[in-house]
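tool=predict chain=A
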Amino acid sequence: MVRSYTVTGGRATPSRTSLDEATLLIADHKMPLTGLNPHAHRVMDLCLPGVLSVAEVGHHLQLPGAVTKVIVSGLVDSGHLVARSPVPAAQQHDMALLERILDALHAL
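tool=predict ok
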């Protein structure tokens, strides 16, 4: 068993409070991976092909969300990752507009 503070290098809290499980992570392909600890290196390996959420990264690492956020916030601070809020859910359909479209289609 590896203690959580071992994985985070002794850090107990993330440097960024804006991270949540749905935050999307985008890796910077130009940043060197040398010098990263094994977990941070694994996060970069996971995020380099595309976008992953903090929850997905935590699942792949088999680490609690709080520990994952500490690792991810360090990578965001160093410029290895960009964190973005998820795309908001689509807005509700405008029923009046849909009814006008339906009426126009019936009129054809």
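The CA atoms of residues 50 and 94 lie 33 Å apart. The chain has five helices and three strands.
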